[in-house]
Design brief:
The longest helix has 20 residues, at 21-40. The protein has helices at residues 2-16, 21-40. Helices cover 85% and strands 0% of the residues. The protein has one domain (2-40).
């Protein structure tokens, strides 16, 4: 299960391609929400 989560995190970060510090913060927030959703399943 942890491997799947780590792969999802890596994929999201690669696809996000943050350009600014604010963008990074928003992406990290979205990533946290997705990890929480995965944890609930």
């Amino acid at each position: 299960m942890k491997k799947i989560s780590l792969m999802m995190i890596a994929l999201v970060l690669l696809l996000a391609g943050c350009n600014t510090i604010n963008g990074i913060g928003k992406d990290v927030e979205k990533l946290g929400e997705k990890v929480q959703d995965l944890g609930k399943k």
